[in-house]
Amino acid sequence: MALRSSSTLRPLDRPLTALCLCFVSWKIILFIIACLAPGPGYDTSTALLLGRLGQLSGNVNTSPENATQNNILMRLMTHVASKLVRWDAIYFTQIAERGYAFEQEWAFGWGFTQLISQLTQTLASLGLITTPPTVTAEAIVGIFLAHSSHFFSVIILHHLASLLLPIQSRAPLAFIIAFLHIVTPAGLFLSGPCTESVFSFFSFSGLYLFVLSHVYDLRARRGPRDLCTLFSGIFFGLASTVRSNGLLNGILYLYDLVALLQDVLTNRNLTVAHIRRGLILALSGLFVAAGIVYPQYLAYQSFCTLGESQADLRPWCQERLPSIYAYVQSAYWDVGFLRYWTVSNLPLFLLAAPMLYILSSSAIWALMMQRPKSKDDSAKASHAERSLILTSPIFARCITPLAIIQLLLAILAFTNYHVQIISRISSGYVVWYIWVALKLSGELAPASGDKLVPTESIVRWMVVYAIIQGGLFASFLPPA
After folding, report:
1. pLDDT for residue 2 is more than 60
2. Engineering a disulfide at 61: which of 66, 162, 163, 458 sits with its beta carbon 3.0 to 4.6 angstroms away?
3. Per residue in 372-384, is it b (16+ CB within 10 Å) or e — as a string?
4. Transmembrane region positions (predicted)?
């Protein structure tokens, strides 16, 4: 798959249009797979949840012809919802409708449920759906939010890659990177009312602004640089309200802060500009942390300030750093260090192995690129590796903390998480997209393992995994 071939270069004339067509085509394929899934699936939770059906629109013409059309549309939308509201999506839609009622529900991202709820309430206030909205309406709004977030994530990722990459290879690589995000193994998790697509949208938006801040820094434009840094922290904070692993994005600011301190210590010169930059980075990091802390504060207010005696308080209320999220994950979902390492879970580790390999290999590649090279290493380095570092100072500045974040995610998934989720939460991280795109271009120096795992096989695995997972997801079968 060479980038120089005419068949590959055609989409580059209008890359955003081509990406739109690819996005719609892929979503149609997944949509057909979901709709063809037989029956209510292995579990009846969705059927029970969506049993409370209501009209999605109370402000319609009730003539027989329109009533029939509305009934057909309603049946179609309800059928789609019944196939996409699976696993975690059941919690998200129910919480969005009636709020957090049970302790274990606080494991599910507060930010995402609030987005669904607020958007549904807005549509209801405009008369587009009935008041009060039904859980089916919440589900359909969540599906719309997932699709739109995934689409805009693709567009933002294309622009982000264009900022990071050197001019000579920018257009083809940016297109491939964005395309890989379309066919990511997350599959139907990016179509149903789940957090992955919204997390990607907030994360890529924050990362775009963060990278843009470095562009302004190179141009010595401090005002725009600091504004972009602050707004990137806000977007990363929003990502943290959606998924807790968004907290890892704070490493970007920590890395820059350490570099700033090293500069001060090396030059032995602390200036007002240094202090200002340090405060901006610290404040941006606090925005990221706030995305985790604020939902915990709301839960604390609900469970720990009711006036009961110490004996009646929930165990986590009395911790030094009370966190309902950490407690619920441990007590209800059995999340913890090496807890998932059981013989019965071995098939799930095997399913997660390809993505763990991709995440760790691409992160290690990015970290190794930054180390000083010997003459032999420099001779073996590919054109792409040399050009990324030499002609893209933005890439050189940003790639190391991004690689650290991705490597930490892979380690945490392997040691702490329910490991199979790595195939869907990896969709919100950028280094592995760059790595696979460079390999597909044929410009990246081949590694020793490439004969065992050709790059084309990685892309085939992504597509096949997403398709098979789509059928299993719609049938309420694992992996989830």
Report:
1. no
2. 66
3. ebeeeeeeeeeeb
4. 16-39, 139-161, 173-192, 198-215, 227-244, 278-297, 346-367, 388-415, 458-477
For residues 37-69, one letter each, b for 16 or more C-beta atoms within 10 angstroms of the residue's C-beta and e for the rest, the string is beebbeeebbeebbeeeeebeeeeeeeeeeeee
Buried b (16+ CB within 10 A) or exposed e, 86-109: bbbbbbbbbbbbeebeebebbbbb
User: Is residue 8 a part of any domain in this protein?
Assistant: no
- Residues composing the chain: 480
pLDDT tens, position by position, 133-150: 788 889 999 999 999 999
d(CA 418, CA 107): 13
Give the model's pLDDT for residue 52: 47
Q: What are phi and psi of 391, to 5 degrees?
A: -110, 0
DSSP symbols for 66-89: HHHHHHHHHHHHHHHHHHH--THH
Contact 359, 422 (CB under 8 A): yes
In a domain, 23, yes or no: no
Residue 9 counted as domain residue: no
Cα-based torsion angle of the residue sequence 327, 331, 335, 339 in order, rounded to the nearest 10 degrees = 130
* pTM of structure: 0.91
Contact of 157 with 443, CB cutoff 8 Å: no
d(CA 385, CA 438): 9
- Cα 95 from Cα 106, distance rounded (Å): 10
State the helix-helix crossing angle for 393-415 and 135-164, rounded to 10 degrees: 140
Instruction: List Cα–Cα distances, 17 to 10, 12, 21, 466, in angstroms.
Output: 11, 9, 6, 23
* DSSP alpha helix (H) spans, 183-243: 196-218, 222-242
Confidence of residue 318 (pLDDT cuts 50, 70, 90): confident
Which residues have C-beta within 8 Å of that of residue 21, sequence separation ≥ 6? none
Q: Are 352 and 413 in contact (CB under 8 A)?
A: yes
| Amino acid, single-letter form, for residue 195 | T
CA neighbor of 203 nearest in space, from 252, 166, 170, 165: 252
Question: Is 18 a member of any domain?
Answer: no
Q: How many domains in the chain?
A: 1
pLDDT in tens, 379-427: 556 666 666 666 788 999 999 999 999 999 999 999 999 999 999 999 9
Range of the domain at 197: 28-474
Separation of alpha carbons 207 and 214, rounded Å: 11
The CA angle 227-232-233, to the nearest 5 degrees, is 100
- What sign results for the dihedral spanned by CA atoms 234, 240, 246, 251? positive
